[in-house]
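#data-curation
PF: Archiving a pair of folding outputs for the training set. Convention for this channel: one message per protein, sequence first, structure tokens after, nothing in between. First:
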Amino acid sequence: MLRRALIAILAVSPAGLPATSLAYDIKPKPPESAFTAKLRPDILGISTDSTADAARTIFESVFKGRSDAKTDIQLQKFGGTTISYIAGLTSGFPSGPKQGGEALASSFSSPASANRAFFVARNLMFAQDQQPSKTAMIKQVMDKYGKPTIVGDQHLYYIYRAGKIVSVGAKYKEASALDAIDRPLDPRVAIKLNGADGRGSCVAVVKRAQAREKTLSAMLDDAKGANCDGALSVQLTPGVAPDRVGNAEFTLLDLKRIVSAAAIDGDALVAEKNERNPTPQGTAPKL
């Protein structure tokens, strides 16, 4: 069966194979971002301003020297060209009875939109005898990212709009964030995150993004429908004791970048396809 399949493949003439653009010139156009230079959150130094090459360097430094770390580099080709680029990176090592585990992931747009990150995630799995306190974790999170928009359901959510962290009236300090984190999200606060025009809350968008494929096309509809430009979520799952953290999961999502990069990439792919298959330029004969 395998031999017949190979013969069938070899029998296909070059004319039957799709043409590729061998020397296509991509002119990168940086996409818009939810974050400004003064307010650009990062995870281990990876922000949504990071290129795939810059993020790969950080991935390698984080897991350097760990023989149990596994790294996966997802490569894609741009349209019908031979140009390959990094579309995704995942790396990490498993947890054990006496050792914590870690996973790091990021997704990137194409070279047409400067191969920039639009999704970054980190998951820390603490060994039972190494679990930090919720008090210490919340302090570290707020020292790094500032005061969250809303806290509850084991999460601290930072919602960004117009280059700023959105405030919906809840002025969290470390003590009040600690008090709220294991409670359900306050519905009176959460409803304020929905847009008057029907656009949805970024809290739901972040949850869906965590569960689905990390591509521009898979996230585009949610990005367009969200009532914000970007979001950062920090989930602190209880550990062996209620005041300890068993898992800490960080998710950074640039929704404005997803919309902008998808438009840039779409236009560039159309241009590349037209160059590969130009419209005939013949003129009608004189009758």
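PF: Second:
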Amino acid sequence: MTASQHPRGKPDASLPVPPVELVAGRVALVVTDPQNDFLSPEGVTWGVVGESVTENGTVENIDALFTAAHAGGIPVFVSPHYYYEHDHGWRFEGALESLMHQIGMFDRKGPLDLDAFEGSGADWLERYKPHIEHPNTTVVSPHKVYGPESNDLVLQLRKRGIEQVILAGMSANLCTESHMRELIEQGFEVVVVSDATAAAKLPEYDGYEAAFLNFRFIASGVWNTATAVDRMGAVSPSSSASSRDGSAVLAVN
């Protein structure tokens, strides 16, 4: 298996493959935007992301990661994307921000209002609800552009003693890549799960391939779901206490 583990078996770049040691009690799964507007055929972006989601098996692979994390006692953090009514008053924005506002992506009335939230584009994909509404899962405050700089993800990870992140979710070249970059800047060791994300495909652009290149250049590791599930399963939850002093680790090449 190549080091990069591209979902469609593309050759790996001639780059180093840093060893990653998953440490019980210090590793978490972070999932960006597991929401209907990205991952449901009824979502407002399905026309441009659906092909990539289907090719990668993204929906099923995110589900597998949730399952493995809960089974292994690995904490899960969800970083969602919401726009409230006051967010539509922004006076400048980037190209895709402008599009998201125009199509009502991730819209909610406000942070304290759940009216019409159930089943909306901003809601969780139905199959993920048992995983997200789980005592092992922390849903952090929403990010507003692409990265976690405007939410409390980093704070919540630090307060739990997390130093390593297994990263998945949507969208590969937007929120997922931006989370990867910021978490690395904040000193976390980040592994991206290559087939548990996807992105828009247009005649002129392939967002997923753009993101994958940066995952490989920047992240500590790029694994597929099968590898991630295997490595997560080898981190014993019973070793979490001893791992505080670094004694329980899993070596990954």
